[in-house]
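About this split. The held-out portion is used to measure sequence recovery: a designer receives only the structure tokens and must propose an amino acid at every position. Recovery is the fraction of positions where the proposal matches the reference. Here is one held-out target exactly as it appears in the evaluation file.
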């Protein structure tokens, strides 16, 4: 587009000189040629703007105003002077313009901005009041508010923003109004009241609900925070709102609500698994672990499913059950030599007299990773007991503090049986 304009100007220049001569030599120049000259100057002004030379464009528009008397050119000059920061010239031209067109809102607003930029706030406020006298619009109320912001009179700024908002309940104005109340007037409750009222009348848009959520969080009003995030998620379906709602529910220890929400929404399936386990819903936890392994192919869930399958089994001695669990745990251990699962499979093989010696080896590997674990030490002792090595079993049990043995029923039972066996073998 700039090249196109430049091309036209080059072509026009060839004829412009001739037109200029004709104007000088013949006072009765046709009107068409005068219009052609005016259009040429306009193109030159646009070309100056394309070349980032706004001052040249100002000169051309001011010249056109002086020669033709059209206020449109003076208006263009005012706008450009404001843009380049020549506020004194913009003020001078604006005052001239408004003497002829006192009801032009755009130029009067520009003049108000010029006064504010020149730090002449009393004059800016006087002009803004005149503007409001002509038209009580959102834009004019906001302009008054902005001037009081510059003056750091936030109480007056709030009043004008309230007047602006009262006209059409515009959300952008509500945003500025409530921000003023929170940040400058430290009146959070008033901001909340405005936002809640708007929400009831106009609906809770994303901006309004997010702002309410932020204020509820600051106030620790968790019940309303929960309700707001629920609205946001139901309306917009974004995962971030689901996570925020879940965070509130967990903080409030509303685990049943959290589980119901996760079941219905399908978000955060791993958290749902944790909640099932935490609340003792082990059958559901097993199914969730199985589901997660099927879709993610992560052995973490396969190992967990195997543990839960064993815990949930009505008959833990069922050979088919034990075979299935052993198979899953071996798949897990092919990828990860995790001490928890090494001990679990090892203890399983020992306790059910399936492969005791292999079970002992697995438990020993677990102890290499976590040597101070009383549970792993108990598993090892139980393995020796199963092999009939009672003194060795007792030696391992005695490495566990007595207080920890007595704290767990199963471990205490093992200790008593091992002690009894060791006494018999020493006779």
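Reference sequence for scoring:
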């Amino acid at each position: 587009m700039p090249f196109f304009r430049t091309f036209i100007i080059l072509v026009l220049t060839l004829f412009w000189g001739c037109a200029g001569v004709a104007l000088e030599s013949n006072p009765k120049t046709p009107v068409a040629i005068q219009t052609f000259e005016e259009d040429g100057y306009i193109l030159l002004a646009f070309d100056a703007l394309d070349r980032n030379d706004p001052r040249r464009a100002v000169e051309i528009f001011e010249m056109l105003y002086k020669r033709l008397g059209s206020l449109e050119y003076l208006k263009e000059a005012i706008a450009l002077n404001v843009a380049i920061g020549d506020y004194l010239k913009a003020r001078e031209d604006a005052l001239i313009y408004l003497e002829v067109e006192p009801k032009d809102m755009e130029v009067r607003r520009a003049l108000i901005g010029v006064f504010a930029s020149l730090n002449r706030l009393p004059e800016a406020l006087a002009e803004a009041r005149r503007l409001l006298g002509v038209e009580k619009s959102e834009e004019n109320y906001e302009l008054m508010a902005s001037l009081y912001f510059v003056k750091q009179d936030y109480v007056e700024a709030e009043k004008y923003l309230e007047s602006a908002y009262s006209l059409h309940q515009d959300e952008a104005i509500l945003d500025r109004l409530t921000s003023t109340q929170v940040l400058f007037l430290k009146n959070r409750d008033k901001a909340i009241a405005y936002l809640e009222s708007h929400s009831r009348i106009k609906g809770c848009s994303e901006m309004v609900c997010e702002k309410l959520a932020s204020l509820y969080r600051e106030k620790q009003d968790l019940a309303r925070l929960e309700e707001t995030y629920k609205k946001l998620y139901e309306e917009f379906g974004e995962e971030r709102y689901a996570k925020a709602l879940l965070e509130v529910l967990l903080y409030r220890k509303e685990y049943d609500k959290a589980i119901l929400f996760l079941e219905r929404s399908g978000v955060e399936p791993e958290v749902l698994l944790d909640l099932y386990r935490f609340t003792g819903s082990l059958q559901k936890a097993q199914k969730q672990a199985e589901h997660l392994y099927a879709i993610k192919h992560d052995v973490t869930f396969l190992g967990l499913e195997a543990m839960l399958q064993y815990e949930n089994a009505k008959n833990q001695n069922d050979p088919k059950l034990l075979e299935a669990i052993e198979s899953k745990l071996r798949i897990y251990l092919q990828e990860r030599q995790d001490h928890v699962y090494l001990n679990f499979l090892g203890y399983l093989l020992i306790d059910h007299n399936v492969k005791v010696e292999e079970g002992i080896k697995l438990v020993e590997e677990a102890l290499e990773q976590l040597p101070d674990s009383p549970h792993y030490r108990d598993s090892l002792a139980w393995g020796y007991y199963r092999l009939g090595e009672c003194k060795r079993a007792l030696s391992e049990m005695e490495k566990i503090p007595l207080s920890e043995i007595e704290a767990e029923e199963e471990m205490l039972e093992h200790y008593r049986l091992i002690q009894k066996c060791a006494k018999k073998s020493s006779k």
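Annotator remark: The chain has 25 helices and no strands.
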